[in-house]
Amino acid sequence: MTDKQTLIEGLNKDLAAEYQAVIMYTTYAAEVSGIYRKELEGFFQAEVAEELGHARYLANKISALGGTPATEPAGVPHHDNVRDMLEEVRQAEADTIKRYARRKDEAEEAGEFGLANDLEDMISDETRHREECEKMLRGSWK
Ligand SMILES: [Fe+2]
Ligand SMILES: [Fe+2]
What we know:
This protein has four helices and no strands. Helix 1 (4-31) packs antiparallel against helix 3, helix 2 runs antiparallel to helix 4 and helix 3 (82-109) runs antiparallel to helix 4. The chain is elongated and about 50 Å long. It is mostly helical. The chain has one domain: Up-down Bundle (Ferritin). 77% of the residues lie in helices and 0% in strands.
């Protein structure tokens, strides 16, 4: 069984990762270079709004559960190379999907069924992000 406190602690890790995603996509959009810059800048920028929406949702939920929302983002690794940026993003999305799948189980155990349902929607969002990255990484460019 997962108690409320454990659930809140997990959600705060998720929140730090969503803030990380906002900073990562913003930074990579600013720094991406090379002949695919225009495309990738647009792609990274488009993700910012969605990740910020996830962060807002989690901060609100943590507060509703009686916790204090985290304010420190997880660290963002710096990359000069476009392919490394996309690899970093793909891995971050894959990690987030795993965390949300675990959090969904914990939410159900804690009797937070609305949260479990919303986490499922977020798993769908993050899966879409991961798949877009994977498709771009499949290209023949270096
Ligand atoms: Fe997200
Ligand atoms: Fe994402």
